[in-house]
């Protein structure tokens, strides 16, 4: 009798999973359908790459280079992710292992800043970027995201959990702070590094509002904004729109499937 509630729970979870994943499966399959079959059956009668060819050819005709936009997204996401890991590790070390006046005040301020949604800072950030003359540059897409309050918080908490004996032994061998961070703390907190890196990469890859505001040059646009500009012009062609959505989301799906363990760890650590 005890198995019956568990069976019911599994059935409910399976049904919820199907409801959640169905739109993504439908989008993927429909992107390979001819446009006149999209609202037909679930499976395409014939698989075609015409929608993907259309979006690539149309992007070139509109002088909105698709491959360059993909390269921009990769470059920006990788650069910001590396920058966030470096700044978070350095600040986290200072807040967790160095004693100085105001340390707790700074840490509490970082936690307090995490309460506010990011869009509240868009206007002052835009004014700052404009005054620096960085509008329509890749630097404008990278610079404001190089420091993450959440990343600092995660590294600070992880570094605090490392026993002092490891650091004292390293200092007895003549190690400086930078050596301790890179050779002792980072290897011992590799899960935090992976979690912060993955969530940062995904957040920057999916970022739309900020690039839309500060970049109008198609050669510097990330993929998310370029596809949105394409959809505004060819939105009535549902097939290419779905193909563009697949191209935008599939890298994140692959990353999730490969690093699923770290995503679950990140969610559990954020809730603690």
From TrEMBL:
SUPFAM superfamilies assigned: MetI-like (SSF161098)
Q: Which GO terms describe its biological process?
A: transmembrane transport
Q: Keywords in alphabetical order, please.
A: Cell membrane, Membrane, Sugar transport, Transmembrane, Transmembrane helix, Transport
Provide the membrane topology annotation.
Multi-pass membrane protein
| Broad class of where this protein is predominantly found | membrane
Transmembrane recorded as keyword: yes
- Which positions fall inside the ABC transmembrane type-1 domain? 70-259
Residues passing through the membrane, by range? 7-26, 74-93, 105-129, 141-163, 184-205, 237-259
Coiled-coil region(s): none
GO cellular component entries: plasma membrane
Q: Does the keyword Metal-binding apply?
A: no
Q: Which family does it belong to?
A: Belongs to the binding-protein-dependent transport system permease family.
Q: State the protein's name.
A: ABC-type sugar transport system, permease component
